[in-house]
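User: Um, any thoughts?
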Amino acid sequence: MTKSTGGADIGVYGLGTMGSALAMNFADKGFRVAVSNREADWIGDFLTEAGPLAERMVGETDLEAFVSAIARPRNILFMIPSGAPIDAMIAAITPFLDEGDTLIDGGNADFHDTRRRAKAFEGTGFHFVGMGVSGGEEGARRGPSMMVGGTAHSWTALRPMVEAVAARFQGAPCVDHLGPDGAGHFVKTVHNGIEYADMQMIAEVYGLLRDGGGREAGAIGKVFESWQAGPLSSYLIEVSAAALQAVDGPTGQPVVDVILDQAGQKGTGRWTLIEALKMGQSASTIEASVGARGWSSEKPMRVTAEPLLPAGTVAGEMPSTDDLEQALLAGRILGHVQGFRILSAASDEFDWSLDLARISEIWRAGCIIRSSLLDVLAEAFRAELPMGQLILAPKIIALLEPSIPSLRRVVAAGVSLGVALPALSAALAWYDSIRRARGSANMIQAQRDFFGAHGFARIDVEGQHHGDWPPLTSGS
């Protein structure tokens, strides 16, 4: 290992895919980087792989030597699994820290854990930062989008480095200090929830074209590729178009046709949904997406069910590609609106003062959900929002007006043809719920008062009331 000099600008502990990429990114931008890893043999391999960038790096197998290699006040970035491993690392490294040092968790952590850790650091002279990092391996190496939570002290010390390595949109770095304690990790969690919904809606359109329209993967990929030039322009559309047109070497078939239809998940989609429900927010598009991944895991049951369960399909026509494009746009808008409503509710709940416009802006490059739509959202947030609601912004209404009819036709086609469109259907149902001045919850309140005397509010008289309900003649 290289001899410690105590002059590294930042330490990176954890040399997996993301940690290695970020360490090289920091070095590439001229920063001196100390690196370490639990599996000591990884360190030498990494320094060899880094090539000329290793001249700006120092590798240490010993934890105390690793800390000593970093200039004070220290910034130490953990790129290791969240949960217990972070707590264990904090306990192990704290004895070697000095006042003013900052520990940074760059993983997909539960924001409640981040809040707990930040609280524990208060008054110790040390600082704890929860930093969401989006963009995958390529983003980490070339420029991710980063969402930072923590103290102002930590942000002051960290800012020059993270701004240097972040993705850029029209010259501006896609990173910012979003608030205290768990704010950064929560924003990253919701980012991932929106990502779930985006991916599911794209998959649903693919499925409708395949199972309802009989199109081959390559042809569907060409359709998606054409959409990249319009309002759907985004990283996920670009990825999907390329994936659909890729060919499997061993079989000569489209790669997607040899992939088992079971989708994995790491938990951030569920976390988004759970927190939304706790705060009384609808996250129906994310819920549908999380549910769809769950259903996908039940492959044997689905294979058994297909010949047994009646389809009950009715006559229906495949929508045009223009309708599909507009329907996907409407669904994505509504999914993003739900995501930002969750962020707004959390900002109030935890007193974070989240800048929703700035969040839109730092998602415009480097992250997985980067898209042209985020430009529109940022502009809408910077204008005056009626009732503070993004869904009522003139720019959003202007996009929805031509696209909602297409969403209706696409959802209707899926229902008629027996092709499941859970996320697109959920988006439309939520839209129809919030746009109707008089809903049907009065019926629910009547039922609750009838069987449980829960009471209800009247439209004409203030206070809590009960109905004069007749007895049931059935005696049940």
Q: What stands out?
A: Residues 183-212 form the longest helix (30 residues).
